[in-house]
Amino acid sequence: MTERNLWLRAGWFAVATLLLALLGAWLLFGRGRSPIQTDLLAMLPATERNPLAEVAAQRLAHANGDRVILLVANADDEHAKAAAREFGQALAKDDVFASITAELPPFDLQQLVTPYLPHRFALLIDADRQALAQPGYDPQQTLAQRINEPFVTGVGTRLQDDPFGWLQHWLEQQPWSRSPLLPEDNLLTAHRDDGSYVLVTATLRGSSYDDAIQRHALSALDQAERAIEHDHPGTHVLRTGALFYAASARSDAERDVHRVGLMSTLGIAVLLLLVFRSLRPLLLAFLSTAVGIVAATTVSVLVFGQIYLLTLVFGAALLGEAVDYSIQYLTARANAGETWEPRRGLRQVRPALLLALGTSLLGYALLGLVPFSALRQMACFAMVGMAVACLSVFFLLPALLQRPAKSLSAGSVRIALALQNVMASHTSGRRGVLLGALTFLLAIPGWSQLRHDDDVHLLISPPANLVAQEKQIREITGLGNGTQFYLVQGADEEQVLQREEALEQRLQAMVDQGQLQGWMGLAGMVPSLQRQHANQALLAPLFAQPDRMRQWLRNAGFRDADIDRLVQAWPSTPLSLQAWLKTPVATPFRYLWMGDDAQHGAASLVLPQGDASSALLKQVANNLPGVTLVDKAAGVSELFGRYRRYASIWLLAAALLIVPVFGWRYGWRSVPRVLAPPVLGIGFTLAVLGYLHHPLTLFHWMALMLVLGVGANYAVFLREGEPHVTHRPGAMYASVLLSAITALLSFGLLAWSSMPALKDFGLTLLLGIGFTALLVPASTTMNSSFARSTRR
User: Fold this and answer.
1) Domain end: 195, 222, 240, which one?
2) Same structural domain for residues 213 and 258?
3) Is residue 695 located within the same domain as residue 722?
4) pLDDT, tens digit (0-9, with 9 covering 90-100), for 225-242
5) 215/313 same-domain check
6) For 373-412, what is each residue's pLDDT tens digit?
7) Three-state DSSP class for residue 37
8) What local confidence, expressed as pLDDT, does residue 62 receive?
9) Cα→Cα distances 735→316, 446, 469, 662, 723, Å
10) Is there a single domain that holds both residue 337 and residue 190?
């Protein structure tokens, strides 16, 4: 291959890289929206066998995704209300919010009664149903109790419209009646011992996961909050919503990217300068890696349409592995001295690079088999980045590295040689067998202490202050836990409501026993037609003789006109679900109705409120046809557990797939020596994790898959390179150690990531790569020149 051909190949590769970079820049910045996905729920895999349940989970998760819930608190009631009004007015002036609800428009509580009044005789609570079914039921006593009841300050029916109180009792069990928030001075207010809390809600004019929306909204909220805290001393604001979690996750990820990227870049730069003693190799190594990362980012956004925070942080760490390919070519150049010729150098390193790339791609490909979009994207990112970084060595570096270079620094070679001598002398012969046996015995207690934890909450670590505020808001407002819900399905809406009623009877039993705070479902607001007809059947004997009913009411002091209206209202028409859904009172609850179509039938959601365990809630749904408990967190945890159990099989499969490749290249008798470093490195890593009492997750096993691939790379580099450096023992191991340290500087830094999943990933790679790099000398048989240098 002539020099002209080298430059021609490099030119084509540079043009392709430039086009890819321009496409990536347009995908990231030129479409008016950021493809960076901060929605942590979007990373989670589908877990429900029922497609409708998966749709319901996503719908519920994002029902309030663009809504911000705020509680303005002050020990003084008047100050709390004044601060809430000013807070709402300040937020309303900013166009980042589509709507602000603080001070309510003048509202007549009777508007909550009016939609139900025509259907009053079809709406009965369980207690009234049971009383009416008793043989000795006395309607006159019920009438007397109703007349002597205290005046109702909340949502109440007029005495002449509901003389027996049946509708009043039913209204008192509705969600708006049970809420601790009460309308006072046109503000939704809750009172506690430490003061008053006033609700303010805001809806964003865009997605909570849009970076520009996040920054604008947070700035507006902070500014308005500082203003009311200044004007009303003692005021503080509790806040919750996807906006705050997304912004926190983005901030943490950006900090991790900057920290991992900056520290690993600086560390790798210093190492390359010390070892290669020149700035040019440093720049070319980073150029090769940058090309890989640009390509990986572009392809990931093209394939997935977005890029996760997890992938960005992982991509910053990929720097340490992608630079390995250029390091090997640069090492070959440094070791060749004045005899350097770029084409011959490429032929020298090509087998090692291709073998190393193959083992790495195998590890990442198995990672991509997991049905978890974030892991698949990480695998895609890594495979593209590694492949393009390797191709840059083949097509770009030979044209740019045609002149000889300085040899590797003598200090790095001496250190590597000394370490190689120590490891070689202690891992061969009888001494190696004894050391291996001792190490095995020391590892057994660590292995015996290994345990697993598949909880999906280990994937993320939301800020403690946000979690505390959300919990406090839930306690004050009575909001439920939206991560668990029941999906109720039926042939039509009537069957769905009947099945809801069966479920809600069991949920109410839990409430009565103190196991549950409450529940929210449509059947509690709109009974089934069967239930409504049964209710009217219970009341029918009382209205069967209108004159008797008139006499009871006349004796109680009711006017004849009111008595006539009540008697003539019997029997009332049933309340239709579809008619109710069109009323204003149904607006906050419409998301509970999943609809009715020919494919799935009808379906609704029932939300348990409180902190009941998933096992207890699942038990409630047992033997109830059409009722399924959907617990996204538990479902994902179960999926993680299943694939974590498969991971050991995948790890064994990966090792077995590498065996024939190494057997073909090095001979079957050499395969155990070549595979020993990564396999032992995995074993020692597991032992240390056991001693640290670190519960294993899916991410630990995925990292061990990469330890196998990276460790095999180091064995390949050393075995392929040593025959070419017989004149300078230790030089090849110095390059392997350089590759290992660069990987440790990048992947190892993930152990300090703010994301628990990446912490697990980073810690495992830190241990695994470290052990493997130390054990690599055992993978090759030293030649006579090396042996002589050892004796010297």
Assistant:
1) 240
2) no
3) yes
4) 999 999 999 999 999 888
5) no
6) 777 888 899 899 989 999 999 999 998 888 888 888 889 8
7) strand
8) 63
9) 22, 32, 52, 21, 14
10) no
Better-scored residue on pLDDT, 500 or 583: 500
323 within some domain:
yes
Q: Is the pLDDT of residue 781 over 70?
A: no
Same domain, 219 and 336: no
Considering only 19-23, 185-189, 284-288, 776-780, which range has the smallest mean pLDDT? 776-780
- Which residue blocks in 427-492 are alpha helix, DSSP H? 429-448, 464-477
The region that residue 121 occupies, defined by phi over 0 for left and psi between -120 and 50 for alpha, beta otherwise, is alpha
Axis crossing angle, helix 319-336 with helix 373-395, rounded to the nearest 10: 20
Domain termination residue (choose one: 240, 260, 275): 240
Per residue in 306-324, is it b (16+ CB within 10 Å) or e — as a string? bbbbbbbbbbbbbbbbbbb
Question: For residue range 404-431, what is the model confidence (pLDDT) as tens digits?
Answer: 888 888 898 899 999 888 887 777 778 8
Full residue range of the structural domain in which residue 435 is found: 3-26+247-448+667-791
Q: Is residue 660 part of a domain?
A: no
In terms of DSSP H, where are the helices of 139-179? 139-147, 166-172, 175-178
Beta bridge partners of 240: 69
CATH code for the domain of 433: 1.20.1640.10
Q: How far apart are CA 291 and CA 767, in angstroms?
A: 28
Same domain, 229 and 271: no
SS (H, E, C) 175-236: HHHHCCCEEECCEEEEEECCEEEEEEEEEECCCCCCHHHHHHHHHHHHHHHHHHHHHCCCCE
Cα separation of the two ends of the chain? 42
Whole-number percent of the chain with pLDDT over 70 = 90
Whether residue 308 lies inside any domain: the answer is: yes
Is residue 207 located within the same domain as residue 330? Answer: no
What is the structure's pLDDT at 782?
Answer: 40
Burial class from Cβ neighbours inside 10 Å (0-12, 13-18, 19+) for residue 544 reads exposed
